[in-house]
Amino acid sequence: MADVNTLRGNYTVAITQYNTSLSIYRQLNNLHGISDCYMELGYIQDYLGQYDAALSLYKKALAITIKTRDEKNEAETYNLMGITYDNKGDVSKALDYYFKALFIDVQRKDELSAASKYNNIGLIMQHLELYPKALNYYARARAIWQKHNDQLGLSSVYQNIGETFMAQHYYAKAIPYLRRAAAMFTQQGDSEGTCLIYYDLGMYNYYVNRPDSALHYLNKSLIIAANSKVIINKANAQVGLAMVYNAIKQYNLAYSNATQALAIGQTLNSLNIHTDASLQASLALGGLKHYQQAYNMHLQYSALKSELKHAEGINKIMLYNIEVDFARKQRDHAEQQLKREKVYQTKIASQRNQNIIYAALSVILATVALVYYNAKRKQQRINELLAEKNRSITQHQDVLNTQALKLNELNVLKDRLISVLAHDLRAPISTLRGLFNLLTDDTISPEEFAAMTPKVFIKLEHTSDFLDTLLFWINSQVDNAGKRSTPFELADLVNRELAHLEDQLKQKNISVSINVTPDAIAWADPSCVRIVMHNFLTNAIKFSNRDSSIEIEAHPLDGHYIKFCLTDHGVGMSPDYLNNLFKTQVSSRSGTENESGTGMGMMFCKDLIEQQNGTIWAQSELGKGTKLCFTLPAVDKTSAQA
Question: pTM value?
Fold first, then answer.
Protein backbone atom coordinates (compact mmCIF):
# COMPACT_ATOMS: atom_id res chain seq x y z
CA MET A 1 0.00 0.00 0.00
CA ALA A 2 2.86 2.40 0.82
CA ASP A 3 4.55 1.61 -2.50
CA VAL A 4 1.39 2.54 -4.42
CA ASN A 5 0.86 5.75 -2.43
CA THR A 6 4.49 6.73 -3.03
CA LEU A 7 4.05 6.24 -6.78
CA ARG A 8 0.91 8.42 -6.67
CA GLY A 9 2.62 11.15 -4.62
CA ASN A 10 0.66 10.54 -1.38
CA TYR A 11 3.83 10.81 0.70
CA THR A 12 2.25 11.56 4.10
CA VAL A 13 0.09 8.43 3.91
CA ALA A 14 3.01 6.38 2.57
CA ILE A 15 5.31 7.44 5.46
CA THR A 16 2.71 6.30 8.01
CA GLN A 17 2.31 2.94 6.27
CA TYR A 18 6.07 2.37 5.98
CA ASN A 19 6.57 3.14 9.67
CA THR A 20 3.79 0.69 10.57
CA SER A 21 5.52 -1.98 8.44
CA LEU A 22 8.85 -1.13 10.07
CA SER A 23 7.39 -1.67 13.54
CA ILE A 24 6.06 -5.14 12.59
CA TYR A 25 9.34 -6.16 10.94
CA ARG A 26 11.22 -5.16 14.10
CA GLN A 27 8.94 -7.33 16.22
CA LEU A 28 9.65 -10.26 13.87
CA ASN A 29 13.38 -9.38 13.71
CA ASN A 30 13.04 -9.50 9.93
CA LEU A 31 16.24 -7.67 8.86
CA HIS A 32 15.40 -7.79 5.16
CA GLY A 33 12.05 -6.07 5.76
CA ILE A 34 13.64 -3.48 8.07
CA SER A 35 16.23 -2.53 5.43
CA ASP A 36 13.47 -2.28 2.79
CA CYS A 37 11.52 0.16 4.96
CA TYR A 38 14.61 2.29 5.58
CA MET A 39 15.25 2.49 1.84
CA GLU A 40 11.66 3.46 0.98
CA LEU A 41 11.48 6.08 3.74
CA GLY A 42 14.77 7.53 2.49
CA TYR A 43 13.33 7.58 -1.03
CA ILE A 44 10.42 9.76 0.13
CA GLN A 45 12.74 12.11 2.08
CA ASP A 46 14.77 12.53 -1.10
CA TYR A 47 11.66 13.55 -3.05
CA LEU A 48 10.80 16.07 -0.34
CA GLY A 49 14.26 17.64 -0.58
CA GLN A 50 15.37 16.36 2.86
CA TYR A 51 18.62 14.95 1.49
CA ASP A 52 20.56 14.56 4.73
CA ALA A 53 17.63 12.71 6.32
CA ALA A 54 17.42 10.47 3.23
CA LEU A 55 21.15 9.63 3.39
CA SER A 56 20.88 8.81 7.10
CA LEU A 57 18.12 6.27 6.38
CA TYR A 58 20.03 4.78 3.43
CA LYS A 59 23.12 4.26 5.60
CA LYS A 60 21.02 2.30 8.11
CA ALA A 61 19.70 0.12 5.30
CA LEU A 62 23.22 -0.33 3.88
CA ALA A 63 24.60 -1.55 7.22
CA ILE A 64 21.90 -4.24 7.36
CA THR A 65 22.41 -5.39 3.75
CA ILE A 66 26.17 -5.74 4.29
CA LYS A 67 25.61 -7.62 7.57
CA THR A 68 23.14 -10.04 5.94
CA ARG A 69 25.17 -10.26 2.70
CA ASP A 70 22.13 -9.18 0.74
CA GLU A 71 23.96 -8.09 -2.43
CA LYS A 72 20.79 -7.22 -4.34
CA ASN A 73 19.60 -4.68 -1.75
CA GLU A 74 23.17 -3.50 -1.16
CA ALA A 75 23.39 -2.52 -4.84
CA GLU A 76 19.97 -0.86 -4.70
CA THR A 77 20.96 1.15 -1.60
CA TYR A 78 24.11 2.39 -3.34
CA ASN A 79 21.91 3.38 -6.29
CA LEU A 80 19.51 5.38 -4.10
CA MET A 81 22.41 7.12 -2.35
CA GLY A 82 23.76 8.05 -5.79
CA ILE A 83 20.38 9.61 -6.70
CA THR A 84 20.38 11.71 -3.52
CA TYR A 85 23.96 12.91 -3.99
CA ASP A 86 23.07 13.80 -7.60
CA ASN A 87 20.11 15.87 -6.35
CA LYS A 88 22.46 17.59 -3.86
CA GLY A 89 24.78 18.47 -6.73
CA ASP A 90 27.65 16.23 -5.52
CA VAL A 91 28.25 14.54 -8.88
CA SER A 92 31.49 12.77 -7.94
CA LYS A 93 29.88 10.93 -4.99
CA ALA A 94 26.81 10.13 -7.09
CA LEU A 95 28.96 8.51 -9.78
CA ASP A 96 30.96 6.59 -7.18
CA TYR A 97 27.82 5.02 -5.69
CA TYR A 98 26.25 4.33 -9.12
CA PHE A 99 29.33 2.43 -10.28
CA LYS A 100 29.51 0.52 -6.96
CA ALA A 101 25.92 -0.58 -7.50
CA LEU A 102 26.53 -1.44 -11.17
CA PHE A 103 29.58 -3.58 -10.35
CA ILE A 104 27.53 -5.69 -7.92
CA ASP A 105 24.71 -6.11 -10.46
CA VAL A 106 27.14 -7.13 -13.22
CA GLN A 107 28.73 -9.70 -10.90
CA ARG A 108 25.29 -11.06 -10.01
CA LYS A 109 24.24 -10.96 -13.70
CA ASP A 110 21.09 -9.08 -12.61
CA GLU A 111 20.12 -7.33 -15.87
CA LEU A 112 17.04 -5.51 -14.58
CA SER A 113 18.89 -4.00 -11.63
CA ALA A 114 21.83 -3.03 -13.84
CA ALA A 115 19.45 -1.22 -16.23
CA SER A 116 18.46 1.36 -13.61
CA LYS A 117 22.15 2.06 -12.90
CA TYR A 118 22.92 2.52 -16.60
CA ASN A 119 20.00 4.95 -16.77
CA ASN A 120 21.19 6.95 -13.74
CA ILE A 121 24.79 7.10 -14.99
CA GLY A 122 23.39 8.36 -18.30
CA LEU A 123 21.67 11.20 -16.42
CA ILE A 124 25.03 12.27 -14.94
CA MET A 125 26.59 12.22 -18.42
CA GLN A 126 23.66 14.31 -19.67
CA HIS A 127 24.17 16.91 -16.91
CA LEU A 128 27.90 17.07 -17.76
CA GLU A 129 26.95 17.61 -21.46
CA LEU A 130 28.61 14.33 -22.47
CA TYR A 131 25.67 13.56 -24.73
CA PRO A 132 27.11 10.66 -26.80
CA LYS A 133 28.07 8.83 -23.60
CA ALA A 134 24.66 9.57 -22.07
CA LEU A 135 22.84 8.10 -25.09
CA ASN A 136 25.12 5.05 -24.96
CA TYR A 137 24.18 4.31 -21.31
CA TYR A 138 20.49 4.97 -22.07
CA ALA A 139 20.67 2.51 -24.97
CA ARG A 140 21.95 -0.22 -22.61
CA ALA A 141 19.13 0.43 -20.14
CA ARG A 142 16.51 0.59 -22.89
CA ALA A 143 17.61 -2.74 -24.42
CA ILE A 144 17.26 -4.52 -21.07
CA TRP A 145 13.87 -2.98 -20.23
CA GLN A 146 12.52 -3.79 -23.70
CA LYS A 147 13.72 -7.38 -23.30
CA HIS A 148 11.82 -7.71 -20.00
CA ASN A 149 8.87 -5.47 -21.06
CA ASP A 150 9.46 -3.18 -18.06
CA GLN A 151 7.09 -0.29 -18.74
CA LEU A 152 8.15 1.76 -15.70
CA GLY A 153 11.79 1.66 -16.77
CA LEU A 154 10.98 2.34 -20.42
CA SER A 155 8.95 5.44 -19.58
CA SER A 156 11.92 6.86 -17.65
CA VAL A 157 14.52 6.14 -20.33
CA TYR A 158 12.29 7.53 -23.12
CA GLN A 159 12.02 10.77 -21.16
CA ASN A 160 15.78 10.92 -20.63
CA ILE A 161 16.53 10.28 -24.32
CA GLY A 162 14.08 13.04 -25.26
CA GLU A 163 15.75 15.45 -22.82
CA THR A 164 19.19 14.63 -24.23
CA PHE A 165 18.10 15.32 -27.81
CA MET A 166 16.41 18.54 -26.67
CA ALA A 167 19.61 19.66 -24.91
CA GLN A 168 21.38 19.29 -28.27
CA HIS A 169 18.58 21.28 -30.00
CA TYR A 170 17.39 18.20 -31.94
CA TYR A 171 13.75 19.03 -31.22
CA ALA A 172 12.28 16.87 -34.00
CA LYS A 173 14.10 13.84 -32.55
CA ALA A 174 13.15 14.73 -28.97
CA ILE A 175 9.36 15.12 -29.22
CA PRO A 176 8.44 11.48 -30.15
CA TYR A 177 10.28 10.20 -27.06
CA LEU A 178 8.72 12.83 -24.79
CA ARG A 179 5.19 12.06 -26.03
CA ARG A 180 5.72 8.33 -25.61
CA ALA A 181 6.96 8.87 -22.05
CA ALA A 182 4.00 11.17 -21.26
CA ALA A 183 1.49 8.52 -22.37
CA MET A 184 3.19 5.82 -20.28
CA PHE A 185 3.41 7.98 -17.12
CA THR A 186 -0.28 8.86 -17.42
CA GLN A 187 -1.24 5.20 -17.87
CA GLN A 188 0.83 4.18 -14.82
CA GLY A 189 -0.60 6.97 -12.62
CA ASP A 190 2.97 8.11 -11.82
CA SER A 191 2.56 11.69 -10.53
CA GLU A 192 6.31 12.27 -10.23
CA GLY A 193 6.93 11.14 -13.81
CA THR A 194 3.95 13.15 -15.08
CA CYS A 195 5.27 16.26 -13.32
CA LEU A 196 8.69 15.87 -14.95
CA ILE A 197 7.36 15.13 -18.43
CA TYR A 198 5.02 18.16 -18.33
CA TYR A 199 8.09 20.27 -17.54
CA ASP A 200 9.92 18.76 -20.54
CA LEU A 201 6.94 19.35 -22.86
CA GLY A 202 6.74 22.92 -21.61
CA MET A 203 10.42 23.53 -22.41
CA TYR A 204 10.03 21.88 -25.82
CA ASN A 205 7.21 24.29 -26.71
CA TYR A 206 9.31 27.19 -25.41
CA TYR A 207 12.23 26.25 -27.67
CA VAL A 208 9.99 25.88 -30.74
CA ASN A 209 8.40 29.30 -30.00
CA ARG A 210 4.95 28.19 -28.78
CA PRO A 211 4.68 30.23 -25.57
CA ASP A 212 1.00 29.48 -24.90
CA SER A 213 1.55 25.72 -24.99
CA ALA A 214 4.72 26.12 -22.95
CA LEU A 215 2.84 27.99 -20.20
CA HIS A 216 0.09 25.35 -20.24
CA TYR A 217 2.45 22.44 -19.56
CA LEU A 218 4.72 24.28 -17.13
CA ASN A 219 1.77 25.40 -15.00
CA LYS A 220 0.50 21.81 -14.89
CA SER A 221 3.97 20.66 -13.80
CA LEU A 222 4.05 23.35 -11.09
CA ILE A 223 0.62 22.33 -9.73
CA ILE A 224 1.63 18.65 -9.45
CA ALA A 225 4.96 19.54 -7.81
CA ALA A 226 3.23 21.82 -5.30
CA ASN A 227 0.62 19.16 -4.44
CA SER A 228 3.24 16.43 -3.98
CA LYS A 229 5.63 18.82 -2.17
CA VAL A 230 8.59 17.83 -4.38
CA ILE A 231 10.30 21.22 -4.15
CA ILE A 232 13.08 20.54 -6.66
CA ASN A 233 10.44 19.88 -9.35
CA LYS A 234 8.65 23.05 -8.25
CA ALA A 235 11.85 25.07 -8.68
CA ASN A 236 12.46 23.65 -12.17
CA ALA A 237 8.91 24.50 -13.25
CA GLN A 238 9.27 28.07 -11.94
CA VAL A 239 12.56 28.58 -13.79
CA GLY A 240 10.83 27.37 -16.97
CA LEU A 241 7.91 29.75 -16.40
CA ALA A 242 10.32 32.63 -15.84
CA MET A 243 12.00 31.85 -19.18
CA VAL A 244 8.67 31.91 -21.03
CA TYR A 245 7.43 35.09 -19.31
CA ASN A 246 10.71 36.83 -20.09
CA ALA A 247 10.37 35.77 -23.73
CA ILE A 248 6.85 37.30 -24.00
CA LYS A 249 7.92 40.38 -21.97
CA GLN A 250 5.70 39.74 -18.94
CA TYR A 251 8.56 40.69 -16.67
CA ASN A 252 6.61 40.93 -13.38
CA LEU A 253 5.53 37.30 -13.65
CA ALA A 254 9.00 36.27 -14.80
CA TYR A 255 10.62 37.96 -11.80
CA SER A 256 8.11 36.43 -9.35
CA ASN A 257 8.79 32.88 -10.57
CA ALA A 258 12.56 33.42 -10.78
CA THR A 259 12.84 34.71 -7.20
CA GLN A 260 10.78 31.80 -5.84
CA ALA A 261 13.01 29.32 -7.70
CA LEU A 262 16.08 31.19 -6.44
CA ALA A 263 14.92 30.75 -2.83
CA ILE A 264 14.43 27.00 -3.36
CA GLY A 265 17.85 26.69 -5.00
CA GLN A 266 19.44 28.35 -1.99
CA THR A 267 17.51 26.09 0.40
CA LEU A 268 18.54 22.92 -1.45
CA ASN A 269 22.06 24.28 -2.08
CA SER A 270 21.51 23.39 -5.75
CA LEU A 271 24.08 25.17 -7.93
CA ASN A 272 22.17 24.41 -11.17
CA ILE A 273 18.85 25.86 -9.97
CA HIS A 274 20.58 28.80 -8.30
CA THR A 275 22.43 29.63 -11.55
CA ASP A 276 19.40 29.30 -13.89
CA ALA A 277 17.12 31.29 -11.55
CA SER A 278 19.71 34.10 -11.20
CA LEU A 279 19.88 34.51 -14.99
CA GLN A 280 16.10 34.75 -15.36
CA ALA A 281 15.81 37.18 -12.43
CA SER A 282 18.48 39.38 -14.05
CA LEU A 283 16.63 39.40 -17.39
CA ALA A 284 13.31 40.20 -15.68
CA LEU A 285 14.82 43.10 -13.71
CA GLY A 286 16.30 44.45 -16.93
CA GLY A 287 12.89 44.26 -18.59
CA LEU A 288 11.41 46.14 -15.61
CA LYS A 289 14.14 48.80 -16.07
CA HIS A 290 15.64 48.16 -12.63
CA TYR A 291 19.06 48.30 -14.20
CA GLN A 292 21.23 48.43 -11.10
CA GLN A 293 19.45 45.43 -9.57
CA ALA A 294 19.63 43.63 -12.91
CA TYR A 295 23.37 44.31 -13.08
CA ASN A 296 23.94 43.05 -9.54
CA MET A 297 21.90 39.93 -10.25
CA HIS A 298 23.86 39.33 -13.47
CA LEU A 299 27.12 39.56 -11.54
CA GLN A 300 25.75 36.90 -9.19
CA TYR A 301 24.77 34.75 -12.19
CA SER A 302 28.24 35.13 -13.77
CA ALA A 303 29.94 34.03 -10.54
CA LEU A 304 27.61 31.02 -10.21
CA LYS A 305 28.08 30.11 -13.89
CA SER A 306 31.85 30.23 -13.51
CA GLU A 307 31.62 28.01 -10.41
CA LEU A 308 29.32 25.61 -12.26
CA LYS A 309 31.67 25.46 -15.26
CA HIS A 310 34.64 24.78 -13.02
CA ALA A 311 32.72 22.08 -11.14
CA GLU A 312 31.74 20.44 -14.45
CA GLY A 313 35.37 20.32 -15.56
CA ILE A 314 36.48 18.74 -12.29
CA ASN A 315 33.55 16.29 -12.37
CA LYS A 316 34.53 15.15 -15.86
CA ILE A 317 38.02 14.34 -14.60
CA MET A 318 36.47 12.53 -11.60
CA LEU A 319 34.29 10.59 -14.05
CA TYR A 320 37.42 9.52 -15.93
CA ASN A 321 39.03 8.25 -12.69
CA ILE A 322 35.87 6.38 -11.65
CA GLU A 323 35.56 4.74 -15.07
CA VAL A 324 39.23 3.66 -14.88
CA ASP A 325 38.61 2.13 -11.44
CA PHE A 326 35.44 0.39 -12.66
CA ALA A 327 37.32 -1.07 -15.65
CA ARG A 328 40.07 -2.28 -13.31
CA LYS A 329 37.53 -4.00 -11.05
CA GLN A 330 35.92 -5.68 -14.04
CA ARG A 331 39.32 -6.86 -15.21
CA ASP A 332 40.17 -8.28 -11.77
CA HIS A 333 36.80 -10.06 -11.67
CA ALA A 334 37.39 -11.51 -15.15
CA GLU A 335 40.84 -12.74 -14.07
CA GLN A 336 39.31 -14.45 -11.05
CA GLN A 337 36.73 -16.08 -13.31
CA LEU A 338 39.54 -17.24 -15.58
CA LYS A 339 41.40 -18.80 -12.64
CA ARG A 340 38.25 -20.64 -11.58
CA GLU A 341 37.80 -21.89 -15.15
CA LYS A 342 41.39 -23.20 -15.16
CA VAL A 343 40.80 -25.04 -11.86
CA TYR A 344 37.64 -26.51 -13.32
CA GLN A 345 39.55 -27.59 -16.43
CA THR A 346 42.13 -29.30 -14.21
CA LYS A 347 39.35 -31.16 -12.46
CA ILE A 348 37.94 -32.24 -15.81
CA ALA A 349 41.39 -33.53 -16.82
CA SER A 350 41.61 -35.40 -13.53
CA GLN A 351 38.18 -36.86 -14.14
CA ARG A 352 39.29 -37.98 -17.57
CA ASN A 353 42.22 -39.86 -16.05
CA GLN A 354 39.89 -41.51 -13.58
CA ASN A 355 37.66 -42.54 -16.46
CA ILE A 356 40.63 -44.13 -18.19
CA ILE A 357 41.41 -46.14 -15.05
CA TYR A 358 37.76 -47.11 -14.80
CA ALA A 359 37.85 -48.26 -18.40
CA ALA A 360 40.89 -50.37 -17.67
CA LEU A 361 39.13 -52.02 -14.71
CA SER A 362 36.09 -52.58 -16.88
CA VAL A 363 38.22 -54.67 -19.27
CA ILE A 364 38.72 -57.16 -16.46
CA LEU A 365 35.07 -57.16 -15.41
CA ALA A 366 33.36 -57.11 -18.80
CA THR A 367 33.75 -58.15 -22.37
CA VAL A 368 36.04 -56.22 -24.76
CA ALA A 369 33.08 -55.04 -26.77
CA LEU A 370 31.25 -53.55 -23.79
CA VAL A 371 34.42 -51.84 -22.47
CA TYR A 372 35.12 -50.25 -25.87
CA TYR A 373 31.54 -48.99 -26.20
CA ASN A 374 31.44 -47.37 -22.72
CA ALA A 375 34.91 -45.81 -22.99
CA LYS A 376 34.05 -44.35 -26.40
CA ARG A 377 30.88 -42.63 -25.16
CA LYS A 378 32.54 -41.20 -22.02
CA GLN A 379 35.51 -39.90 -24.00
CA GLN A 380 33.17 -38.17 -26.45
CA ARG A 381 31.29 -36.40 -23.63
CA ILE A 382 34.57 -35.26 -22.03
CA ASN A 383 35.87 -33.90 -25.35
CA GLU A 384 32.68 -31.91 -25.90
CA LEU A 385 32.86 -30.43 -22.41
CA LEU A 386 36.55 -29.56 -22.82
CA ALA A 387 35.85 -27.90 -26.19
CA GLU A 388 33.11 -25.79 -24.62
CA LYS A 389 35.38 -24.75 -21.73
CA ASN A 390 38.19 -23.88 -24.13
CA ARG A 391 35.83 -21.63 -26.11
CA SER A 392 34.75 -19.93 -22.88
CA ILE A 393 38.39 -19.38 -21.81
CA THR A 394 39.24 -17.91 -25.22
CA GLN A 395 36.33 -15.46 -24.94
CA HIS A 396 37.44 -14.40 -21.44
CA GLN A 397 40.99 -13.84 -22.71
CA ASP A 398 39.72 -11.60 -25.52
CA VAL A 399 37.77 -9.51 -22.99
CA LEU A 400 40.85 -9.20 -20.74
CA ASN A 401 43.03 -8.07 -23.66
CA THR A 402 40.51 -5.39 -24.65
CA GLN A 403 40.22 -4.10 -21.08
CA ALA A 404 44.03 -4.06 -20.66
CA LEU A 405 44.39 -1.94 -23.82
CA LYS A 406 41.73 0.50 -22.62
CA LEU A 407 43.35 0.82 -19.17
CA ASN A 408 46.73 1.51 -20.76
CA GLU A 409 45.26 4.28 -22.94
CA LEU A 410 43.53 5.89 -19.95
CA ASN A 411 46.73 5.77 -17.84
CA VAL A 412 48.75 7.43 -20.64
CA LEU A 413 46.15 10.21 -20.84
CA LYS A 414 46.27 10.68 -17.04
CA ASP A 415 50.10 10.99 -17.08
CA ARG A 416 49.93 13.58 -19.83
CA LEU A 417 47.38 15.69 -18.00
CA ILE A 418 49.43 15.73 -14.79
CA SER A 419 52.59 16.70 -16.71
CA VAL A 420 50.93 19.60 -18.54
CA LEU A 421 49.34 21.05 -15.40
CA ALA A 422 52.63 20.80 -13.47
CA HIS A 423 54.60 22.35 -16.37
CA ASP A 424 52.38 25.33 -17.20
CA LEU A 425 50.94 26.36 -13.83
CA ARG A 426 54.14 26.42 -11.75
CA ALA A 427 55.43 29.82 -12.94
CA PRO A 428 52.33 31.99 -12.30
CA ILE A 429 51.76 30.40 -8.88
CA SER A 430 55.41 31.06 -7.96
CA THR A 431 55.03 34.69 -9.08
CA LEU A 432 52.01 35.21 -6.86
CA ARG A 433 53.71 33.51 -3.90
CA GLY A 434 56.80 35.67 -4.34
CA LEU A 435 54.72 38.84 -4.39
CA PHE A 436 52.98 37.95 -1.12
CA ASN A 437 56.33 37.00 0.46
CA LEU A 438 57.64 40.48 -0.38
CA LEU A 439 54.63 42.04 1.30
CA THR A 440 54.89 39.74 4.37
CA ASP A 441 58.60 40.48 4.84
CA ASP A 442 57.97 44.27 4.53
CA THR A 443 60.32 44.26 1.54
CA ILE A 444 57.78 46.41 -0.31
CA SER A 445 55.25 48.86 1.00
CA PRO A 446 51.49 48.41 0.65
CA GLU A 447 51.53 51.23 -1.92
CA GLU A 448 54.13 49.40 -4.00
CA PHE A 449 52.14 46.19 -3.61
CA ALA A 450 49.00 47.99 -4.80
CA ALA A 451 50.91 49.34 -7.81
CA MET A 452 52.10 45.86 -8.74
CA THR A 453 48.71 44.17 -8.20
CA PRO A 454 47.03 45.11 -11.56
CA LYS A 455 49.89 43.62 -13.54
CA VAL A 456 49.91 40.43 -11.48
CA PHE A 457 46.10 40.26 -11.74
CA ILE A 458 46.35 40.43 -15.54
CA LYS A 459 48.89 37.59 -15.45
CA LEU A 460 46.59 35.50 -13.24
CA GLU A 461 43.63 36.25 -15.50
CA HIS A 462 45.66 34.92 -18.44
CA THR A 463 46.70 31.89 -16.41
CA SER A 464 43.05 31.21 -15.49
CA ASP A 465 42.10 31.57 -19.14
CA PHE A 466 44.91 29.21 -20.14
CA LEU A 467 43.74 26.71 -17.49
CA ASP A 468 40.22 26.85 -18.97
CA THR A 469 41.81 26.10 -22.36
CA LEU A 470 43.65 23.10 -20.88
CA LEU A 471 40.45 21.88 -19.17
CA PHE A 472 38.64 22.16 -22.51
CA TRP A 473 41.33 20.00 -24.13
CA ILE A 474 41.16 17.54 -21.19
CA ASN A 475 37.35 17.26 -21.53
CA SER A 476 37.69 16.70 -25.29
CA GLN A 477 40.05 13.78 -24.54
CA VAL A 478 37.79 12.32 -21.80
CA ASP A 479 34.48 12.44 -23.72
CA ASN A 480 36.02 11.82 -27.17
CA ALA A 481 34.52 15.04 -28.48
CA GLY A 482 35.18 15.96 -32.10
CA LYS A 483 37.10 18.98 -33.36
CA ARG A 484 35.53 22.39 -32.90
CA SER A 485 37.03 24.28 -35.84
CA THR A 486 36.42 27.95 -36.50
CA PRO A 487 38.22 30.67 -38.49
CA PHE A 488 40.67 32.82 -36.48
CA GLU A 489 43.64 35.10 -37.09
CA LEU A 490 47.01 33.78 -35.94
CA ALA A 491 48.06 37.38 -35.21
CA ASP A 492 45.52 37.56 -32.36
CA LEU A 493 46.93 34.45 -30.65
CA VAL A 494 50.53 35.69 -31.12
CA ASN A 495 49.73 39.06 -29.50
CA ARG A 496 47.89 37.44 -26.56
CA GLU A 497 50.71 35.00 -25.77
CA LEU A 498 53.42 37.68 -26.12
CA ALA A 499 51.52 39.91 -23.69
CA HIS A 500 51.34 37.03 -21.21
CA LEU A 501 55.07 36.26 -21.53
CA GLU A 502 56.20 39.90 -21.46
CA ASP A 503 57.91 39.52 -18.06
CA GLN A 504 59.91 36.45 -19.13
CA LEU A 505 61.05 38.25 -22.29
CA LYS A 506 62.10 41.35 -20.33
CA GLN A 507 63.88 39.23 -17.72
CA LYS A 508 66.26 37.92 -20.42
CA ASN A 509 66.11 41.13 -22.52
CA ILE A 510 64.88 39.14 -25.54
CA SER A 511 63.53 41.12 -28.50
CA VAL A 512 60.72 39.75 -30.68
CA SER A 513 60.29 40.36 -34.41
CA ILE A 514 56.77 39.69 -35.73
CA ASN A 515 55.89 39.15 -39.39
CA VAL A 516 52.35 37.72 -39.36
CA THR A 517 50.36 38.72 -42.45
CA PRO A 518 46.70 39.81 -42.02
CA ASP A 519 45.53 37.00 -44.34
CA ALA A 520 47.03 34.31 -42.06
CA ILE A 521 43.56 33.04 -41.11
CA ALA A 522 43.38 29.36 -40.10
CA TRP A 523 40.45 26.94 -39.91
CA ALA A 524 41.05 24.98 -36.70
CA ASP A 525 40.33 24.91 -32.97
CA PRO A 526 41.95 28.10 -31.57
CA SER A 527 42.15 26.60 -28.05
CA CYS A 528 44.33 23.73 -29.28
CA VAL A 529 46.50 26.02 -31.43
CA ARG A 530 46.94 28.37 -28.48
CA ILE A 531 48.41 25.53 -26.37
CA VAL A 532 50.90 24.76 -29.17
CA MET A 533 51.90 28.42 -29.61
CA HIS A 534 52.33 28.79 -25.83
CA ASN A 535 54.71 25.79 -25.80
CA PHE A 536 56.71 27.16 -28.76
CA LEU A 537 57.19 30.55 -27.07
CA THR A 538 58.06 29.23 -23.60
CA ASN A 539 60.62 26.83 -25.09
CA ALA A 540 62.16 29.62 -27.20
CA ILE A 541 62.54 31.87 -24.13
CA LYS A 542 63.83 28.98 -22.02
CA PHE A 543 66.65 28.05 -24.46
CA SER A 544 67.54 31.59 -25.66
CA ASN A 545 70.52 33.45 -24.29
CA ARG A 546 70.19 36.83 -22.61
CA ASP A 547 70.07 39.83 -25.05
CA SER A 548 69.10 37.58 -28.01
CA SER A 549 66.10 37.72 -30.36
CA ILE A 550 63.11 35.65 -31.52
CA GLU A 551 61.45 35.85 -34.96
CA ILE A 552 57.78 34.96 -35.51
CA GLU A 553 56.27 34.69 -38.97
CA ALA A 554 53.03 33.36 -40.46
CA HIS A 555 51.63 33.51 -44.00
CA PRO A 556 49.40 31.54 -46.42
CA LEU A 557 51.00 28.55 -48.16
CA ASP A 558 49.69 27.50 -51.60
CA GLY A 559 46.25 28.89 -50.75
CA HIS A 560 45.28 25.76 -48.78
CA TYR A 561 47.38 26.02 -45.64
CA ILE A 562 48.77 28.60 -43.22
CA LYS A 563 52.43 28.21 -42.23
CA PHE A 564 53.61 29.41 -38.81
CA CYS A 565 57.28 29.45 -37.73
CA LEU A 566 59.11 30.62 -34.60
CA THR A 567 62.91 30.96 -34.67
CA ASP A 568 65.27 31.46 -31.72
CA HIS A 569 69.07 31.86 -31.63
CA GLY A 570 69.67 29.87 -28.47
CA VAL A 571 71.43 26.63 -27.55
CA GLY A 572 69.83 24.46 -30.25
CA MET A 573 69.58 20.64 -30.24
CA SER A 574 71.77 17.70 -31.16
CA PRO A 575 70.63 15.50 -34.10
CA ASP A 576 69.66 12.62 -31.76
CA TYR A 577 67.60 14.89 -29.49
CA LEU A 578 65.93 16.53 -32.52
CA ASN A 579 65.11 13.13 -34.05
CA ASN A 580 63.19 12.02 -30.89
CA LEU A 581 61.54 15.39 -30.18
CA PHE A 582 58.06 14.45 -31.45
CA LYS A 583 58.30 10.65 -31.07
CA THR A 584 58.44 9.99 -27.34
CA GLN A 585 59.01 11.62 -23.98
CA VAL A 586 62.51 13.13 -23.87
CA SER A 587 64.64 14.11 -20.89
CA SER A 588 63.82 17.72 -20.13
CA ARG A 589 66.90 19.96 -20.28
CA SER A 590 67.48 23.00 -18.12
CA GLY A 591 67.23 26.39 -19.84
CA THR A 592 70.03 28.89 -20.28
CA GLU A 593 69.26 30.21 -16.80
CA ASN A 594 68.38 26.82 -15.23
CA GLU A 595 64.65 26.90 -16.16
CA SER A 596 63.01 23.48 -15.84
CA GLY A 597 60.40 21.58 -17.90
CA THR A 598 58.61 18.24 -18.29
CA GLY A 599 59.82 16.90 -21.65
CA MET A 600 56.18 16.29 -22.68
CA GLY A 601 55.37 19.60 -24.42
CA MET A 602 56.29 18.76 -28.01
CA MET A 603 54.45 15.42 -27.84
CA PHE A 604 51.28 17.35 -26.93
CA CYS A 605 51.93 19.87 -29.70
CA LYS A 606 52.21 17.12 -32.31
CA ASP A 607 49.02 15.48 -31.03
CA LEU A 608 47.06 18.75 -31.09
CA ILE A 609 48.28 19.92 -34.54
CA GLU A 610 47.58 16.55 -36.17
CA GLN A 611 44.07 16.61 -34.67
CA GLN A 612 43.55 19.85 -36.66
CA ASN A 613 44.72 18.16 -39.94
CA GLY A 614 48.03 20.01 -39.78
CA THR A 615 51.73 19.10 -39.72
CA ILE A 616 54.51 20.02 -37.31
CA TRP A 617 58.31 19.92 -37.59
CA ALA A 618 61.53 21.38 -36.16
CA GLN A 619 64.93 22.44 -37.50
CA SER A 620 67.86 22.94 -35.15
CA GLU A 621 71.64 23.04 -34.97
CA LEU A 622 73.52 22.72 -31.71
CA GLY A 623 74.75 26.11 -30.54
CA LYS A 624 72.93 28.07 -33.28
CA GLY A 625 69.26 27.94 -32.33
CA THR A 626 65.98 26.22 -33.23
CA LYS A 627 63.15 26.79 -35.70
CA LEU A 628 59.70 25.31 -34.77
CA CYS A 629 56.98 25.28 -37.45
CA PHE A 630 53.48 23.99 -38.09
CA THR A 631 50.85 24.24 -40.82
CA LEU A 632 47.08 24.47 -40.44
CA PRO A 633 44.24 24.37 -42.98
CA ALA A 634 43.47 27.83 -44.35
CA VAL A 635 39.94 29.27 -44.46
CA ASP A 636 38.18 28.51 -47.74
CA LYS A 637 37.73 31.96 -49.31
CA THR A 638 34.52 30.95 -51.08
CA SER A 639 33.00 29.68 -47.80
CA ALA A 640 34.25 32.71 -45.93
CA GLN A 641 32.62 35.14 -48.42
CA ALA A 642 29.39 33.19 -48.31
Answer: 0.50
